UniProtKB/TrEMBL annotation, chain A:
GO biological process, one term: phenylacetate catabolic process
Entry GO terms, CC: cytosol
Basic and acidic residues biased stretches: 282-294
Pfam families: PaaA_PaaC
Name by which UniProt lists this protein: Phenylacetate-CoA oxygenase, PaaG subunit protein
Single GO MF annotation: phenylacetyl-CoA 1,2-epoxidase activity
InterPro entries with a match to the protein in the record: Aromatic_CoA_ox/epox (IPR052703), Ferritin-like (IPR012347), Ferritin-like_SF (IPR009078), PaaA (IPR011881), PaaA_PaaC (IPR007814)
Region (Disordered): 271-310
Automatic annotation (TrEMBL), chain B:
Matches recorded under InterPro entries: Fe-S_Maturation_MIP18, FSCA_dom_sf, MIP18-like, PaaD-like, Zn_ribbon_PaaD
UniProt superkingdom: Bacteria
Domain MIP18 family-like: 9-81
Lineage: Bacteria, Pseudomonadati, Myxococcota, Myxococcia, Myxococcales
Gene3D superfamilies (UniProt xref): Fe-S cluster assembly (FSCA) (3.30.300.130)
Location of the PaaD zinc beta ribbon domain: 124-166
Protein name listed in UniProt: Phenylacetate-CoA oxygenase, PaaJ subunit protein
Organism the protein comes from: Hyalangium minutum
Leader sequence residues: none
């Protein structure tokens, strides 16, 4: 960034003109806070999503599926790891972020506040939530914050690989027994509402500072949801699955998908830690932190002095 | 007269069109994962080494190799081999350039000696240039990135975070 950018006005003009901000650049405090809030939510969502899937490593039906879901968990934790590092360079330490997460003070995508019940859930999560994530992350590829912008293509490539993995789980089950097909339908029925909320409540673009002022994201929530519905509703229906929303249909007049309006206040409450599985999952996170504390302490402690045995 | 069967060179060229599923900027040939291609009549044997044992993309890549080879009219037999472990030294110069453009760095010069995993200490001390500014003053953040064949590093002068491909 040019050294003469020193006021918020000049800064906004710089990013409005497509300028990219680096960690070492001067930035208004409001921008720094907005970037931290945005990336922290993304990082925590990657991490909490990984914990959800981690539970299924030992229960995967075949060795190959176990390898795949283990690798997926590593991918998601790797994304979180990368994003936590970006936050460190913005002055938000990893210890603070993880402490807030454990204490239930942090926000993450409401999708990851629900429990998993069957192996079909792993297919739905990998296929559809990762597909929804890609739509959200593609809208960030031109984000004004450079270190975030450079990581996103790799995150998208990896999520695209997860989509293949998830779709394959679902296709295998759909080509299986009646009981397996029912398992998929039951999982889709449970996960459909959280998938519909995935991109968040519709916000008027002019009020969305992340979108308009700071150029952190490139598209409004409702636009992303419409794209998701446009791609996946026909695919799911073609597979013979039923979507549990009697109002869901494509309105040819408005060229928009119509759906039953979610209770957005409930969705906000879920995102703040009042979802069906929020506390259980945070407890898993706290236990993981506690059980593995010795590893972090060992790695961070100074080396032992050499002891002579003679 | 029947048309001549495709040659091994044509198979190599076709495989150069198959990209790594998690790094779609580089082909499996440029990554150095294809070890041998033998064509005998209408049968073709392809020796393929994933970047690490337990790579979750092994079956997916094998399927794509089969598809590319069938596209030439040959019957493929993919042999997954770990006889010669993969390492970043086997990435072609063209592949290195593509990875660098995608902000992924290698710990060694392309075409160098066979790399062997040197443990955490060697990884921490490796001179890995930042793909953004070129500085070698970079620190190891984590021995593992999103996959076992990658580590995460940070450039100290420009604070860029990037991934490094490594032997496992």
């Amino acid at each position: 960034m040019e050294a003469n950018v020193r006021t918020e006005e000049e800064f906004v003009a710089y990013i409005q003109a497509g300028g990219v901000v680096e960690a070492s650049d001067w930035m208004p405090e409001a921008y720094r806070r907005a970037v931290i809030r945005f990336i922290e939510m993304h990082a925590n969502s990657e991490y909490m999503g990984a914990l959800l899937e981690r539970d299924w490593i030992a229960r995967a039906p075949t060795l190959e599926r176990r390898i795949a879901i283990t690798a997926k968990v590593q991918d998601e934790v790797g994304h979180a790891q990368h994003l936590y590092c970006v936050l460190e360079d913005l002055g938000r330490s990893r210890a603070e972020v993880l402490r807030d997460l454990s204490a239930g003070r942090a926000r993450y995508n409401s999708f990851f506040h629900y429990p998993t019940r069957s192996w079909a859930d792993c297919g739905i999560i990998a296929w559809l939530s990762d597909a929804a994530s890609i739509i959200a992350q593609k809208a960030l590829l031109k984000t004004s914050y450079g270190p975030y912008r450079r990581i996103l293509p790799k995150i998208c490539w990896e999520e695209a690989f997860h989509v293949v993995h998830g779709r394959e789980i679902i296709l295998t089950l759909m080509e299986g027994t009646q009981q397996q097909r029912e398992m998929v339908q039951e999982a889709l029925t449970r996960w459909w509402p959280p998938l519909l909320y995935f991109h968040g409540p519709p916000t008027p673009p002019e009020k969305d500072a992340d979108l308009m002022r700071w150029k952190l994201k490139g598209r409004a929530n409702e636009e992303m949801r419409q794209e998701f519905l446009g791609i996946y509703v026909p695919r799911l229906q073609k597979m013979g699955l039923t979507l549990p929303d009697p109002q869901l249909r494509f309105d040819t007049e408005t060229q928009r998908w119509k759906y039953t309006e979610p209770d957005w206040e409930w969705v906000r409450q879920v995102g703040r830690g009042h979802g069906p599985a929020s506390q259980e999952q945070l407890e898993t996170r706290r236990r993981a932190m506690e059980e593995n504390r010795w590893v972090a302490e060992t790695l961070q402690s100074p080396p032992e002095p050499e002891v002579s045995l003679s | 007269m029947t048309p001549a069967a495709p040659t091994a060179a044509e198979v190599w060229a076709a495989l150069d069109g198959v990209n790594d599923p998690e790094l779609p900027v580089i082909s499996i040939v440029q990554l150095g994962m294809i070890r041998d291609v033998r064509v005998e009549g209408l049968r073709c044997t392809i020796v393929f080494s994933p970047t690490f044992i337990g790579c979750p993309a092994t079956r997916l890549i094998s399927g794509e190799i089969e598809g590319a080879v069938r596209g030439l009219g040959l019957e493929p037999e993919v042999q997954v081999s770990f006889a010669q472990p993969w390492s970043p030294g086997q990435i072609s110069p063209k592949g290195c350039a593509a990875l660098k453009a995608a902000h992924i760095s290698m710990g060694r010069e392309p075409g160098g000696a066979e790399g062997s995993p040197g443990g955490l200490e060697a990884l921490a001390k490796a001179r890995v240039p930042c793909p953004r500014c070129g500085s070698e003053d970079t620190e190891l953040v984590s021995a593992f990135g999103a996959t076992r064949c990658r580590a995460v590093r940070r450039c100290l002068p420009c604070r860029n975070l990037f991934e490094q491909l490594k032997a496992t």
